[in-house]
Design goal:
By secondary structure, the chain is of the alpha/beta class. It is 38% helix and 26% strand. It has a single domain (2-231), classed as P-loop containing nucleotide triphosphate hydrolases (Rossmann fold), CATH 3.40.50.300. A six-stranded mixed β-sheet has the order 6-7-8-3-9-10, sandwiched between helices. Strands 2-1-4-5 form a four-stranded antiparallel β-sheet, covered by helices on one side.
């Protein structure tokens, strides 16, 4: 579904990504793991069109998207749940969700999509008229996921979905990701909890200093001695 080839990305003179190549098969959960500053968020932002790559190719369903603006990329079917949630705190829960359905691909499905989001996250329905900024951190993350789903994506990119959440809420969020995947959603997952992300994923890549240094199934990397020493403290 998504293929990246030889991607380079710079912030000024600083190289954030170097010769990155990876694939996200349709229907899979693919994890990107690495230390803080490895380039994981830069990769997500490049795919989303927020950052412009200096070189390389990003293809979604075989169509080149690396020069498209973010709103066009969203309307092709790539959704993003950004790090830090980035909801609209002064809008209500319902208004936040309605914003997600403003894309042309999503407008005619808005009512059905809203029902699906409320079925997945009943607490959002209970708080539909509540200001989003007054929600708990876990509820805000549910709202961020729900808003993304309103856009009818075929691929969702999650950037640190468990960041700042309690262990119990983390389990809820990860269960939601697994549930979406079981329904056919393709997922690109950047997650600080390396063990969890490798257990969830069918395919994983290790990113270090902007370069892919290892790849394999989640299970393979979970039991790889180098990964266990570097990221699991084992």
């Amino acid at each position: 579904m998504l293929r990246i080839e030889n991607l380079d990305l710079y912030y000024g003179d600083a190289e954030a990504l170097s010769n990155v190549s990876l694939e996200v098969p349709q229907g899979a959960i693919v994890a990107i793991v690495g230390a803080n500053g490895a380039g994981k968020t830069s990769l997500i932002r490049a795919i989303a069109g927020i950052e412009r790559a200096a070189a390389g190719s990003i293809a979604f369903k075989r169509a080149e998207i690396s020069r498209l603006p973010p709103h066009r990329i969203c309307d092709l079917g790539i959704g993003q749940v950004a790090e830090g949630r980035q909801i609209f705190p002064n809008l209500s829960v319902l208004e936040n969700l309605e914003v997600g359905a403003m894309l042309p691909r999503a407008r005619q499905h808005a009512k059905a999509s809203l029902e699906e989001v409320f079925a997945m996250f009943p607490r959002l329905k209970q708080r539909a008229s509540q200001s989003a900024g007054t929600l708990s951190g876990g509820e805000q993350q549910m709202l961020a996921i729900g808003r993304c789903l309103m856009a009818k994506p075929e691929l969702i990119m999650f950037d640190e979905p468990s960041l700042g959440l309690s262990p119990l809420v983390v389990q809820e969020v990860l269960h939601a990701i697994r549930s979406l995947n079981e329904r056919g959603m393709t997922v690109l997952l950047v997650e600080q909890n390396v063990a969890v992300s490798l257990r969830l994923s069918q395919l994983a890549y290790v990113l270090e200093n902007g370069r892919i240094v290892m790849s394999g199934s989640g299970a393979q990397l979970l039991h790889d001695e180098r990964v266990r020493r570097a990221y699991l403290g084992l």
